[in-house]
Amino acid sequence: MFDLTGETAIVTGGARGLGRAMADGLAERGASVALFDVIDGTEACEQIAGACGVQARFYEVDVTDEARIEEAVGQVVEDFGPIDILLNNAGIYYPTPVVETSREDWQRILDVDLNGYFLMAKYVIPRMPDGGRIINIASIAGHSAFEQSAAYCVAKGGVIELTKSLAYEFGDRGIRVNAICPGTFTTDMTAEMLEGTEFIATIKREIPLNRPGRPEELKGLAIYLASDASSYMTGSIIDIDGGWTCHV
Ligand SMILES: NC(=O)c1ccc[n+]([C@@H]2O[C@H](COP(=O)([O-])OP(=O)(O)OC[C@H]3O[C@@H](n4cnc5c(N)ncnc54)[C@H](O)[C@@H]3O)[C@@H](O)[C@H]2O)c1
């Protein structure tokens, strides 16, 4: 039921962090993986191929570059065949108060965190067989406001609506599209925040499980959504946040 043997997955932002952990998870279940990233993912691919005995290949792709996305997606099809799974994960985050946010910074966050997901879907869906799966990494910030995070919240809220729209539009092809909303996980993105005693205090106070998530704790949900185990799920938005948003 959780088997992905012989399938091909593209993971954006797969060179490190949550993307890397989820790429590991898909590969452990037998999927070949294509990592799209702006940082070098060659070593990650060597480790994945060595550990899981699947094909893993790195493609240098900036998800804001439409021409490069089109080219790289075509290359993946040549290298691997049709794309069964798209895991949209590449993202950026930097906290700033709205009145101090430049238009360029606002636009950059929307370009990477939302428009990049749209562009990837646009070019992958035509190369996906019926029954393909898309997993979008949103955030609990996509449905709840967080301090100094307006652009990020808007982008992630957009990812949630994009997920529902794609699920609606491509359901008749059996393409299932779901979103994961992580709370706080320990990655490079959150490292600085997690060094602050104030944020640690917030975590202890607000998160019932009293700690941030570990990247590998996302693997199970990614495998579930990528596999037949979730065959009747589409358009669903799933929190994985140690219970942060289960209380107000
Ligand atoms: N870590 C958390 O607590 C957390 C919480 C909620 C949601 N998320 C989301 O999870 C995803 C992964 O975050 P992470 O914590 O692993 O961060 P990270 O910074 O560790 O990893 C992000 C990856 O995306 C890549 N990337 C950035 N811009 C890119 C671009 N333009 N094109 C291609 N690749 C690009 C980076 O090089 C990096 O490999 C993001 O979408 C983030 O918003 C993270």
Task: Map the helices and strands.
Layout: E1 8-12, H1 17-28, E2 32-37, H2 42-52, E3 56-60, H3 66-80, E4 85-88, H4 103-124, E5 133-137, H5 150-170, E6 176-182, H6 191-195, H7 197-206, H8 219-226, E7 237-240
Parallel strand pairs: 1-2, 1-4, 2-3, 4-5, 5-6, 6-7
Helix pairs in contact: 1-2, 1-8, 3-4, 4-5
The protein binds nicotinamide-adenine-dinucleotide.
Largest sheet: 7 strands, parallel
CATH class: Alpha Beta
**Strand percentage, roughly?**
5-15%
Biggest sheet, spatial arrangement of strands: 3-2-1-4-5-6-7
* Computed CA radius of gyration, to the nearest angstrom: 17 Å
Total beta strands: 7
Overall mean pLDDT score? 98
Q: What best-fitting shape do the alpha-carbon axes yield?
A: globular
User: How many helix segments?
Assistant: 8
CATH architecture: 3-Layer(aba) Sandwich
Task: Give the H and E element order.
Answer: EHEHEHEHEHEHHHE
Number of domains: 1
Q: Approximately how much helix is present in the residues?
A: 40-55%
Key phrases:
alpha/beta, 7-stranded parallel β-sheet, Rossmann fold, 8 helices, 42% helix, single chain, 248 residues, binds nicotinamide-adenine-dinucleotide
